[in-house]
Specification:
The chain has 232 residues and is mostly helical. The chain has helices spanning 10-14, 21-28, 48-62, 72-75, 77-115, 117-125, 130-162, 173-181, 194-220, 224-228; strands spanning 167-168, 187-188. Strands 1-2 form a two-stranded antiparallel sheet. The termini are far apart. The model has no long low-confidence stretch (mean pLDDT 78).
Length: 232
């Protein structure tokens, strides 16, 4: 015995033994490699189709030799079991985020309507119908949401391209040491697909449409005389 392993969790220390690779191979599998990992560049963790295709291709050659080919989910059944729950939790989190953004947008559009009640009353007095006022408010709100959604996507794409070579987390050294002990990476690599962009843009436009309906309906119900007398 040369020293003691100091891990952040005591239950890990109780079942962990640190030995050189050569000694481990001598004790467990003399002259053999127990596991070989193949990582595919450009393939996401949850894209199962290319992983299964590679597995089928390798299985034809390696199965007769008594070797087993597994995807990373099959090799980590514990993580595979919680993956569906993870997706549900992330879906709820994203839905809550967009709900909050919708409420903020609704408040902004409503305040914009309140500040221009007299203008809408004047337009109605000049002959613009309630449906016309509603369309005016609705398309104005949708235009603002669409423009800023595109600007946000552009900023996000720029940040993604800037961090394409990896993002090193600005954490204290003692936390990074724990990451290494658990085998977690210190550098994160982002992944952004066309479906992600379309999803975000669709959410933004959908929230913008729903948030614009109520202020637009209120504007269409204004009485011209009462609206022109309105003082905010």
């Amino acid at each position: 015995m040369v020293g003691l392993v100091d891990l952040p969790e005591s239950h890990l220390e109780a079942r962990t033994l640190l030995v050189p690779l050569e000694d481990a191979q001598t004790l467990l599998a003399p002259g053999r490699v127990t596991r070989l990992e193949v990582r595919l560049p450009g393939v996401g963790l949850y894209e199962e189709a290319p992983l299964l295709a590679l597995k089928a291709s390798l299985q034809e050659d390696l199965a007769p030799r008594g070797l087993v080919v597994e995807t990373w989910l099959e090799a980590n059944p514990g993580y595979a079991a919680i993956l569906p729950l993870y997706r549900v939790v992330m879906g709820v989190y994203v839905g809550f985020f967009f709900l909050l953004a919708g409420l903020i947008l609704l408040n902004a559009l409503y305040l914009s309507l309140v500040e221009r009640v007299r203008e809408f009353g004047l337009l109605s007095a000049l002959g613009l119908s309630g449906r016309g006022v509603m369309a005016l408010v609705f398309w104005e709100s949708l235009l603002l949401v669409g423009v800023f959604a595109l600007l946000g996507l552009g900023a996000g794409l720029f940040a993604h391209l800037e961090m394409a070579d990896g993002f090193r987390m600005p954490l204290p050294q003692w936390i990074l040491e724990q990451y290494r002990e658990f085998g977690l990476p210190e550098v994160l690599y982002g992944r952004l697909g066309l479906s992600d962009l379309l999803l975000v843009l669709g959410y933004a436009l959908g929230v913008g449409v729903l948030a614009a309906l109520w202020p637009a309906w209120l504007a269409s119900r204004l009485e011209p005389v009462e609206a022109m007398r309105y003082v905010p």
